[in-house]
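Hi team, as promised in this morning's meeting, here are the two structures we talked about. I've kept the exact order from the run log so nobody has to guess. The first one is mostly here for context; it's the second one we should focus on when we meet again. Sequence first, then the predicted structure tokens.
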Amino acid sequence: MRILVRRAKAFGGTVEVPGDKSISHRALLFAALGETPLHLAHLAPGADVRSTAACLAALGLEAAPGAEGTFVVRGRGALLPPARTLDCGNSGTTLRLLSGLVAGAGVKATLDGDASLRRRPMARVLEPLRAMGAAARGTHSQTDECAPLVFSGGALKGRTHVLRVASAQVKSCLVLAGLQAAGVTEIREPQPSRDHTERMLRAFGAPLHVAADGTVVVERLSRPLGLPARLRIPGDPSSAAFFVGGALLVPGGSVACPGVDVNPTRTGFLRVLARMGAEVHVEPGPEEAGDPVGTLHVRPGGRLVGTDILPGEVPSLLDEVPLLAVVASQAQGVTRLSGAAELRVKESDRLRQVCCGLKAMGVDVEETDDGFLLQGPARLTGAHLDAAGDHRIAMAFAVAGLVADGETVIDGAEWADISYPGFFVELATMSSGAVQP
């Protein structure tokens, strides 16, 4: 799929973004630890979450559309050995979190995915799971273990894990394993990562707490997880970020995004934008799924300035780096990103793709081992770009095209469906037709 983007004369409106992808994955997976039906409203519609639902169905759970637009998932007290390989598609979250669930349950299963997912490093989950007693192996590459992952059972025992890199996916994998392991499991990270897992499980009554130093402590479930009858998934801040960016860059732009998750571990991009001089306000709303929720309001503001994005901030804004780089290209001065080497093992090498795309559009940017150094503001020129199989690259450069001279053409735009089906239609509406899906 190819899209065409021209300079936007206006940008504004109200947009309700899809349900949060991270919370949607977790709600589905945690339902496997309960025995009552969980009706999920506003579930993320993208391909990644569909992969999680399909894998759970193959493990014996009821997972199907329900009434009034909900999705119903119901555990049966135990997972069943799947009759086929569990296909995680393009979803690293599905593969990593499902590994913890399957290993804890002791079922025999093979987890696989598409060509992109098979290149992503998995030793970071396999090694700690093996240390807990799981019989698990991956396919060895030159540098790591990758999918397909084979689990052959094994009774797990809790232990202390000290993660070298903060990762919500690895942490959540080990929490899922720990809830099914004998004894106590502890997970320590060098910096805080997304805490949706901790918040949601505590709301469901799981034996989990977070110590004063941030260590996550998990004990084995003594009874099925206590699930609510209905749960509404809050809007995805990573999806809302692209509309925030469009409103900040297009002169006179404004936008409102209601019902968005504003968990502090997910909104580092808002804090960075505030430092840059952006006018983004959060109107608080009621909690959902254990997380704070609000409406994001962006109004025309002052001049943007460059800033340093430090390693300690990266876990809270990792998915928004491509969008932040586009915004920084229009800010006065230097923007530096460091501590983001994790982006090299996403759906693409995001650091490389962001820097190459910005250079093609006329930005003075230098790629570093773990980030970039960017000088703004740049007068952007439309370019012919490839999404490189990465939804966030496709979406970020569509926003860049809204303030570029000439035409920006993006090949592989269909990858946006991974997280946001219909994104380009919505972006076209907000930009008064500057985007042609």
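And here is the second protein, the one for discussion:
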Amino acid sequence: MNWFLVNTNVKTTYRQSILQKRNTLGLSEVSNLSKTILRNADLGLNLSAITTLGSYFSVNNEVDLATLTNIRLKKNLLTTFPKVEPNHSISLIAPKDFKKLRKNKYDIFEPSDGDKVNPIDHEIIVIPTVGVDINGYRLGYGGGYYDRFLESVMEKNNRPLLIGLIYDFQFIDDSINESHDIKLDIVFSEQQSKKFS
């Protein structure tokens, strides 16, 4: 049997199961858990104070990063957000005007204008994550955008820290990575933080 197909099927099964569970969360549950997760991450990494942070606009019950974004905006700190580009790629953009966001083809808000910031110029990039396996490898949404985007950064010495902010049930007690998958450095949930070297 083809190992690639087996692993792809396993990833699909985990992805569907986690997303199904995440979709059942209520608004107040998302809000309360997100506050705890952000507090844990801020205590660990000072996300609300670092100079350049890569973030994202949360959708579909992802950990809500709006509070973090607002704190950073008030402090005038550089925060970038992904924008889908042609050829299945993304860029990290520092929006000029948060009132001029637009929804992309995945129905996710993204900057309509702003300055592109090289990934290597970030201190930390928060990666949208469906799940994280026992070795720290990210299970994404299946499009490979972040895998391709960060491929050139992974081997650099002074690369940004790659982190995940997830609910506890998004930890996967299995090894499911493929060769192209991105390994996260630190992952925070409401109950724990895990470092992966």
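Starting points for discussion:
The radius of gyration is 16 Å.
The CA atoms of residues 18 and 68 lie 24 Å apart.
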